[in-house]
Amino acid sequence: MYKNALKEDFIRVVEDLDGTVESTDTIAKLKTKIENSSTFESDPDFVKTLIKNCIDERVSRNERDLEKQKIELAKLQLAQLEKEIELQTAKNEALSLNLLQLKSKRNSSKQT
Fold first, then answer.
1. N or C: which end of the chain has fewer CB within 10 A?
2. Within 13 Å, how many C-alpha atoms sit on residue 62's CB side?
3. How many angstroms separate the CA atoms of 55 and 13, rounded?
4. Alpha-carbon distances of 65 from 62, 72, 75, 89, 111, rounded to whole Å
5. CB 10 within 8 A of CB 52
6. Do the Cβ atoms of 9 and 62 come closer than 8 Å?
7. How far apart are CA 19 and CA 29, in angstroms?
8. Which of 58, 19, 55, 54 is nearest to 35 (CA)?
9. Distance in angstroms (rounded) separating the CA atoms of residues 85 and 83
10. CA separation for the pair 93, 85 (Å, rounded)
11. Which residues of 50-82 are buried (b: 16+ CB within 10 A; e: fewer)?
12. Is residue 112 pLDDT above 80, yes or no?
């Protein structure tokens, strides 16, 4: 029933069951509060489903956050590549101008 559950999941379930959570509560204490709740005593399957839903929501939220981070990283990498292309284009233009100047100097020195 508690497989893959984190403390934040237990806190949320205790709060959903109208229990109070103290900052010093351990996971064991939170589990005890859940198991001693009137809701658990009257409908343990409901509480088990509640715990499972909390876990599933947290996992989904973490997966969404990870996807957002991947997208942000891809955007940053794209921006970096665009800057590198811009820099390389500027270098190529500068080299082209230098070559034109050299050719122009050669041509003018040949004519004299």
1. C
2. 6
3. 10
4. 5, 10, 15, 36, 69
5. no
6. no
7. 12
8. 19
9. 5
10. 12
11. bbeebbeebeeeeeeeeeeeeeeeeeeeeeeee
12. no
Tens-place pLDDT, residues 4-57:
999 999 999 999 998 899 999 999 999 999 999 999 999 999 999 999 999 999
Task: Name all contacts of 76-79 with Cβ < 8 Å and 24+ positions apart.
Answer: none
Residue 107 has pLDDT above 80, yes or no: no
User: In one letter, which amino acid is 26?
Assistant: T
Contact criterion met (CB below 8 Å) for 33 and 16: no
Residue 11 identity (one-letter amino acid): I
Place of tokens 């070559």: 99
DSSP H stretches of helix in 1-112: 7-16, 27-35, 38-42, 44-111
- Alpha-carbon dihedral sign for residues 58, 54, 48, 36: positive
Taking the C-alpha atoms of residue 58 and residue 52, their distance in angstroms, rounded to an integer, is 10
**Chain mean position to CA 24:** 29
